[in-house]
Specification:
Blueprint: E1 2-3, H1 10-20, E2 24-26, E3 30-31, E4 46-47, H2 50-58, E5 62-68, E6 71-76, H3 77-85, E7 89-91, E8 93-94, H4 96-105, E9 112-115, H5 118-128, H6 133-147, E10 155-158, H7 162-185
Parallel strand pairs: 1-8, 1-9, 2-7, 3-4, 9-10
Antiparallel strand pairs: 3-6, 5-6
Length: 186
Amino acid sequence: MVTGPSGAGKGTLIARLVERLPELEVAVSATTRAQRPGEEDGREYWFLDEPTFRTRIAEGAFLEWVDYIDKLYGTLRSELVRIAARGRVCVLELELEGALRVQEDVPGAVTLFIAADVDELERRLRERATESTGEIGQRIRLARSQLEQAHRFRYMVRNDDVERATAALTAIVERELAFAGTMAAR
C-alpha cells in the first residue's frame, strides 16, 4: 500500500512501478467526487453518489474508506478479489487515514509513504490545475500534518527526483515480493 500527501506523486510513481513489475495491479478506488473530463468509471475511480457509497459502507463492502476534503474515498473489497483472481499482487493507493486503517487491519501489509517538500507539493498541485485555490490551501495544510506521520510506515521514499524515486520504490517492492515468495515456498 502506498500513501502520502496530495501532490507527492503517488500516482506517477505507482504507474511507473506497475510498468516495471507487471505482476502488480492497482486497485481502482471508489469516490463521491465529480468525474473529471477524460476520466472513465472503473478506470480512474468507481464514481458513486454519496447515498450509494454510504450504503456500501453499511454493507461492509469497503476494506477502508475516508472522508477527505468533503468527498468520500475507499477501497472496495471486490477490487482485491478481482486482482487476486487474475493472479496479480494488489497495490493500494490510499489517503493517510485509510492507509493507517489497512495497516491495522491487515497484518503484514507492506506500507510505503511517498514524501515531497511542501513547496514542491504546492507547485505540483497548482500545475495539475484540478482543484480550486481554496482546495489547494486545504490540501497543503493537510499535507504538512501528513508528512509528520511518515514514521508510522515501514518505508519512506522521497519523491524529489522521479527516476530516483521510481528506482527506490521498485527495489523495495522487488525485495518484498522475493521475501513473500520465499515465505510461501516454506
